[in-house]
């Protein structure tokens, strides 16, 4: 990337933001979405072009530093808890080379999450309900008693897009990805666009047909986390069964151009003793095959590092710690990668500015399409593997709805939502 880290994180002066916002209004926003209130005069395109990527070159768009609004934990039964009980602490080995961390150990006792259960955005929506003080009007939250049915309602979140961090990661990687496709369900509700991933047939088949080696590699990532994290009170205990069910998730706010974003992502651990505040004291843990040849190393920087950068940059995690395993699944070395330094190692194969300009224009396209404010209305966006366009179809009352009634009712009044919310949570 040509721009400085400060510019990437949106720390330029206010003039930069205003200039970029004006450019966005005139160049990427559909006429009916412009701030001048101009009317819509033409048909919305049915597709969005991924190629050529030169359409997305230029300066890095305004992206504000991600700010943590809150967090939540998920229990062994995947129940939602509005606290940080499952936030782990990084517990590094006494040395970071000549290690012998067997990532296959305990594979037979792996307690695995049921991938057939699709939680969609449910846990993010539960967090919103539990933390509605972030979205109520200020005059309704300062020492005033209300007793009408509408006093506790959320009128509007004041957010343009809500998603999981992984959804935006897939969008960011799309200009450089040809082999994998994706499908995203989109709904406009109370002025906010909700994005929820739909498992593609290709992904489903791959999940169901994973061979033993692939399953061990997947397990190895969770095993590595067990080796190097703890609850902060005692050392890691790798003799215990590994589970990928319990989790800790951060909820962050950021602005991309004119759009206000709220998204959540799972966090592996925090840096103990850090004086920084979340999310800047969080760490991302990864595993990767060791570099046997220069080609292995080049491929790592050109391809794998892009996804790592997108994941961490989106939520403001400053560092990724990777355990490099041999072909027997044993981690022999640990390396550290600074998020802000990753783009300069891309060897010209990817550009963070292209990724974020693409995301910005894609969100503008989605906003131009999703104009019917109705939770039963779903727009299904799809990028098929290898295709140069993103297309969409419209669905209503055909089983695609993903915003549940207990969440919808929370926008009416708390009393009518309480029983449904309790059952859902």
UniProtKB/TrEMBL annotation:
Entry GO MF terms: metal ion binding; mRNA 5'-diphosphatase activity; nuclease activity; nucleotide binding; RNA binding
Entry GO CC: cytosol; nucleus
Annotated spans, Disordered: 1-44
Protein name per UniProt: Decapping nuclease
Ranges of Basic and acidic residues composition bias in the record: 1-16
Residues of the RAI1-like domain: 65-407
Keyword Nucleus carried by entry: yes
Biological role: Decapping enzyme for NAD-capped RNAs: specifically hydrolyzes the nicotinamide adenine dinucleotide (NAD) cap from a subset of RNAs by removing the entire NAD moiety from the 5'-end of an NAD-capped RNA.
Primary localization: nucleus
Subcellular location field: Nucleus
Pfam assignment, any one: RAI1
Broad enzyme group: hydrolase
EC assignment: 3.6.1.-
GO terms for biological process, alphabetical: NAD-cap decapping; nuclear-transcribed mRNA catabolic process
Cofactor field: a divalent metal cation
Keywords from the UniProt entry: Hydrolase, Metal-binding, Nuclease, Nucleotide-binding, Nucleus, RNA-binding
UniProt keyword Metal-binding present: yes
Family: Belongs to the DXO/Dom3Z family.
